[in-house]
Design the sequence.
């Protein structure tokens, strides 16, 4: 038995090619997003294999974030050991009637809202939009977020959800797949990485800090910048570089596919919503950010008839309904803005973000708004207190006069 990794597009012809675009943070590139049909596959260690006639197991790359664009290092995932080979050969056979989609997320046990939707659910919705499927297959190790969102999709489109408990399986039937939403090849683009690095160094310098070290995780892009302020006893601060979409260009369809989940009004709907955070999070020793002048800021929004909602306390179905009909969505920078996927074009998205949230300042929400054609507004506030020893760790002040000026300019009275 031999095992080799090959990209899906090198050995399979798509059954459909859909016009799409890739956004790399600076511009769009025209492309096509293929849909494939694969029969008789093997799955183990979150990877997809097909077996050739001469007994070679071909690892199919490009169909999930687990099966990356690149061959990468030779790990146990793509180079099985002796005992794994035996288990694969004797995989449990599962017969599926009707076309299916295999939901195979990266880090399935994590409750990360952004990655769940953009990296994984978007693939499923893209397939549903263009191909009729009957079943969704998944393994039994999914987190609450993945499970809840899958059940929402299953209910809305009247599908069957089949949960697999076996680690090594051979699926008999026709699976419908599409390529990943994010293109990780840009991790290795030195030109793009250098642009982001120069931007980060400029922001570090303007903030009065000095670069201490660069930490890398994948490719040429810096994962974290370690900086220090000489006036604080050489206290070192580690700031993450949220380089999306510059490091990982994304397909436009990864965002627009969510439009098929939009909901019309079924309950009292608010035109203006300010996203608030669970108070328990703010009292945690690991709290990341909070507004020190929160009462004053919330009062500014209250006077302008905003409704305050903690989206984390709502079901996904309720979140979709509220954000499908809201005209202005505002709040502190965070994953709650992923719900802007459901907002109507030209709706207003107001992001309150601290200056040193990341280096350089993240453009994730800005990119999301740009792709969905929203009116994006950003208020960069003072720096977060990053000293763990400080009682204000995670806190920052939002400039009230600048906020009022933005609201007045947008005629939000």
Sequence:
């Amino acid at each position: 038995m031999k095992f080799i990794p090959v990209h899906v597009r090198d050995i399979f012809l798509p059954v459909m090619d859909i016009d799409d675009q890739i956004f790399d943070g600076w511009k769009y590139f025209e492309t096509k997003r293929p849909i494939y049909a694969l029969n008789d596959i093997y799955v183990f260690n979150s990877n997809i294999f097909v077996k050739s006639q001469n007994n070679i197991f071909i690892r199919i790359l490009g169909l999930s974030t687990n099966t990356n664009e690149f061959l990468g290092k030779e790990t146990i995932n793509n180079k099985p050991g002796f005992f794994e080979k035996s288990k694969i050969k004797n995989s449990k056979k599962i017969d599926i009637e009707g076309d299916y989609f295999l939901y195979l997320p990266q880090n399935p046990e994590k409750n990360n809202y952004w990655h769940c939707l953009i990296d994984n659910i978007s693939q499923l919705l893209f397939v549903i939009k263009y191909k009729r499927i009957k079943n969704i297959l998944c393994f039994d190790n999914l987190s609450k977020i993945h499970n809840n969102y899958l059940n929402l999709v299953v209910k809305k489109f009247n599908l069957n959800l089949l949960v697999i408990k076996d680690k090594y399986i051979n699926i008999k039937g026709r699976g419908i797949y599409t390529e990943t939403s994010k293109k990780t090849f840009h991790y290795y683009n030195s030109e793009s990485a250098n642009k982001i690095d120069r931007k980060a160094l400029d922001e570090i310098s303007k903030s009065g800090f000095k670069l201490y070290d660069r930490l890398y995780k994948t490719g040429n892009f810096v994962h974290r910048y370690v900086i220090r302020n000489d006036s604080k006893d050489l206290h070192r601060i580690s700031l993450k570089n949220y380089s999306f979409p510059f490091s990982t260009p994304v397909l436009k369809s990864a965002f627009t596919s969510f439009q098929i989940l939009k909901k019309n009004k079924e309950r009292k709907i608010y035109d203006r919503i300010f996203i608030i955070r669970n108070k328990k999070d703010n009292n945690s020793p690991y709290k990341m950010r909070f507004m020190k002048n929160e009462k004053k800021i919330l009062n500014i929004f209250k006077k302008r008839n905003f409704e305050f909602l903690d989206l984390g306390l709502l079901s996904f179905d309720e979140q979709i309904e509220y954000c499908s009909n809201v005209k202005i969505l505002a709040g502190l920078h965070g994953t709650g803005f992923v719900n802007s996927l459901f907002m109507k074009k030209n709706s207003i998205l107001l992001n309150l973000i601290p200056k040193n949230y990341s280096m350089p300042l993240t453009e994730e929400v800005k990119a999301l708004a740009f792709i969905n054609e929203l009116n994006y507004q950003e208020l960069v506030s003072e720096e977060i207190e990053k000293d763990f020893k400080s009682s204000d760790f995670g806190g920052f002040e939002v400039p009230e006069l600048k906020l009022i000026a933005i609201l007045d300019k947008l005629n939000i009275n």
